[in-house]
């Protein structure tokens, strides 16, 4: 299972994506990833392996912004699934076999294909 978050786009459409966020001063990328997953999903996780890096540009109202996102395969260690983060509209546990079809962004769908390589094909059943 994977914990996914949903956000509303500017036009109101709900899109599903992997949890992510910003590195706070003094944090490592790994610590930031664990913290952000907790903040956005309510789940306390531990990192099993890196999944990959997504590098992209996007437009804000005033300028073009570059973003690099490091994604990790994590194991849930505790917590309770919740959407208490104001930036998150919904959260859900999704079976791994269905994650790729639910994710909005192609780069995130591509990362999910690495999970079976890391955990073995039985993780998708």
Task: Describe the secondary structure blueprint for this structure.
Blueprint: E1 2-8, E2 14-17, H1 29-41, E3 43-59, E4 64-79, E5 90-94, H2 96-102, H3 106-119
Antiparallel strand pairs: 1-2, 1-5, 3-4
Helix pairs in contact: 2-3
Description of the structure:
- This protein is an alpha+beta fold.
- The protein has one domain: Alpha-Beta Complex (Nucleoside Triphosphate Pyrophosphohydrolase).
- It has helices spanning 29-41, 96-102, 106-119; strands spanning 2-8, 14-17, 43-59, 64-79, 90-94.
- A three-stranded antiparallel beta sheet has the order 2-1-5. Strands 3-4 form a two-stranded antiparallel sheet.
- A hairpin with a 5-residue loop joins β1 and β2 (14-17).
- α2 (96-102) runs antiparallel to α3 (106-119).
- The longest helix has 14 residues, at 106-119.
- The N and C termini lie close together (10 Å).
Largest sheet report = 3 strands, antiparallel
Under CATH, the topology can be stated as: Nucleoside Triphosphate Pyrophosphohydrolase
CATH class group: Alpha Beta
- How many helices? 3
Sum up the overall morphology in one term. globular
Descriptors:
globular, alpha+beta, 5 strands, 125 residues, two-stranded antiparallel ribbon, three-stranded antiparallel β-sheet, Nucleoside Triphosphate Pyrophosphohydrolase, 39% strand
């Amino acid at each position: 299972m994977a914990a996914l978050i949903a956000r509303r786009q500017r036009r109101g459409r709900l899109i599903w994506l992997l949890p992510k966020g910003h590195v706070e001063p003094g944090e490592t990328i790994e610590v930031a990833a664990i913290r952000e997953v907790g903040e956005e999903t309510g789940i306390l996780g531990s990192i099993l392996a890196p999944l990959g890096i997504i590098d992209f540009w996007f437009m804000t109202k005033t300028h073009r912004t570059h973003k690099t996102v490091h994604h990790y395969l994590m194991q849930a260690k505790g917590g309770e699934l919740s959407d208490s983060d104001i930036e998150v509209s919904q959260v859900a546990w999704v079976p791994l076999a269905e994650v790729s079809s639910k994710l909005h962004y192609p780069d995130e769908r591509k990362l999910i294909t690495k999970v079976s390589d890391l955990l073995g094909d039985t993780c998708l059943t």
